[in-house]
Amino acid sequence: MPITRIVSAGNPGAERGGVDAASYCDLDHGGWIRRGRRNGRDVRIPLRYDVPHVRNVPDNRPCSEANVVDSDATVVFAYGMPSDRGGKAAALAMKHDRPCLTIDLNRPRTETVDEIVAWLEEDCPSECVLHVTGATEMEAPGIGPTVMAWMIDVISGANGKLFYPIDDHRTPMILREV
Fold it and tell me: Which pLDDT score, from 0 to 100, does residue 38 have?
């Protein structure tokens, strides 16, 4: 059940951390964002994030729904209970009968990464397009790099390759088969 693609809107926080992990591990990434490459706070999404855009919308719900539908499963990252963004994603996953797992980043990293990999093995098809979402940097400062590190561990476990150490150039370094 290798992860073949990470999908997100690329908002600063958990979403960008998931896309950064995909980029680091040399995985395809993408997703849907508001027209003009703007997030919900009207901040421009950098061009390095390969995400198409949709028509102008009053909120991110159409983008969130498109990202859920275009994925095999959704993982929501937060410290404690998920924010509105994470709650909406979970509700949309339920609406579209897609697996969804909410992760509390206050839990131990190794245990939680193992839980995510086991969940993917059970609930995702042979190749998995994974939607990563959750808290923003405004809600949880520093969550983006944390999600990136955890998702590199998840991708390593799910894909059977160890993508460490992180070097200064952010290029994938496949060290050994897991």
Answer: 52
73-88 residue pLDDT tens: 999 999 988 776 667 8
What is the secondary structure of the chain as a DSSP string? --EEEEE----TBHHHHHHHHHHHTT-EEE--BBTTTB-TTSPBPPTTS---B-S--SSSHHHHHHHHHTSSEEEEEESSS--HHHHHHHHHHHHTT--EEEEETTS-HHHHHHHHHHHHHHHS-SSEEEEEEE-BTTTSTTHHHHHHHHHHHHHHHHHTEEE----TT----EEEE-
Tens of pLDDT, residues 125-143: 688 999 999 998 888 999 9
Q: pTM score, two decimals?
A: 0.82
Domain 3-177 fold? Rossmann fold (3.40.50)
Query: How many Cβ atoms from other residues are within 10 Å of residue 48's Cβ?
Result: 9
**Residue 75 · residue 48 · CB < 8 Å:** no
Q: Which of 43-52, 59-68, 128-137, 169-178 has the lowest mean pLDDT?
A: 169-178
Whether the Cβ atoms of residue 75 and residue 120 lie closer than 8 Å to each other: no
- Domain ranges, ordered by start, for the chain: 3-177
